[in-house]
Amino acid sequence: MRQYELVERVRKYNPNADEDLLNRAYVYAMKAHGAQTRASGDPYFSHPLEVLSLIHISEPTRRS
To answer: pTM of whole model > 0.90?
Structure first.
């Protein structure tokens, strides 16, 4: 998932999402994990990215 796709995905569920925060989190995770791979050869970065999108998507539900 690319950076803009993450923002679009989160905005569908939370139109008030902080786009700057999402962008900074994406860049931070990419710097920390961008070159790492799993034993399978898949990029490690995909996991923190998916977790980030799940946290933001579920956040409005948790507040209800």
So the answer is: no
